[in-house]
Amino acid sequence: MKTLLRYLIAAVWLVNGLYCKILGFVPRHETIVARILGDDYSHIITILIGISEVFMAIWVLSKFKSRWCSIFQMTLVAIMNIIEFFLAKDLLLWGSFNAVFALLFILLVYYYEFVLPENKTNNQFL
If DSSP states are collapsed to H, E and C, what string results for 25-60? Predict the structure, then answer.
């Protein structure tokens, strides 16, 4: 179960980073960045955010310092969604309800890291 959740969490970061931002298949993401940070560099900033999200997926899969990774994920998702809620709510896929999905993702990461027991083999890289 824990392995499946790790792959699911990593997939969320990978899809949002690679598909939505780097490859640009969801232009709304760049529009949100432009709204918050301005138009001048919104394209490159969106790509950099996407690259960071791909690295987050790799970090999740590596299980390296997994508690720090989980705390960082939960904090990052909370901050990003609070900023988007106040500055770009009209551009979000589900509007105000985006906060609900963000909270559910945060709870999933928390459940994965702090509630589920570790597998019997404590191999840090599998």
Answer: CCCHHHHHHHHHHCCCCHHHHHHHHHHHHHHHHHHH
Give 61-114 pLDDT, tens digit per residue: 999 999 999 999 999 999 999 999 999 999 999 999 999 999 999 999 999 999
Quote the pTM value: 0.89
64: alpha, beta or left, given left = phi > 0 and alpha = psi -120 to 50? beta
Residue 65's region, left for phi above 0, alpha for psi from -120 to 50, else beta, is left
Question: Alpha-carbon distance 116 to 35, whole Å?
Answer: 38
